[in-house]
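To: structure desk
From: M.T.
Subject: fold request, one chain
Message: Could you run this one when you get a chance? Sequence is below, nothing fancy, just the single chain.
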Amino acid sequence: MLCLNTTIPPTTLTSSPSLDECKLCYVNRDTLFSYHKDSERFLQKLIAILVASHYKNSPNDLQIMSDAPAHHIFCLCAPSGENESKAKEMALPEVLCVLQVCLEGKISEKTVKHELSRGKRGAGDLIPWVISQEFDQENFPSLSGARIVRIATHPDYQGKGYGLLTLKLLQDFYEEKFYVKEDLSSVTMNPVVYDDTEIMDVDMEEKLESQASLPALLPPLNKLRPDRLDYLGVSYGLSQELLRF
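Reply: Done. Structure tokens follow.
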């Protein structure tokens, strides 16, 4: 349940995919945590990559990923053509990189002045508070931003440019380079309807009726209207390797 026994599954790829063929995907969290059998397998893939890439993980990380309102999950997926002829259980896309984003900012001037006068700062919103305190920029917290909380590349594909590509595509997404404004259906996600017989039989006291009709796990980016941002940033402990990246 808490994904504590996750291990990196064997890759279904015969070689490292070309960077030009990989695509950024947005992960619908309602579907990801719906207990559907395919969603469960995909969740295991994501968590396995995160656990393999960071020394400190806890169930709290999974809880934040699942229901924190300001958090979003993206992943870089390999082209699916190579897997189309494989068995159904291998039909999920190969995940090369996982990225967790948290929306920050839009803090009122009154709140900023009140917190700074007390020598404290509110919970969360790491970048706005650091910039405001360290650089005496009281107006910065009012801006809208996104902080990359975690980014992790599959151990078998590290050092090959997939992480950098994921960051580039994420920036393109928030710059609305994927979003099709002329498409009137872009404001909503096209749902994928599953038959009741396909829903995983979970031993629970109450049946989750919402499983009968789930949104697409990986909705197309051109159908998603991104939040308007003023900046995209990170807040990490700096190392030489991380700075080079």
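Reply (cont.): The longest strand covers residues 95-105. Let me know if you need anything else for the meeting.
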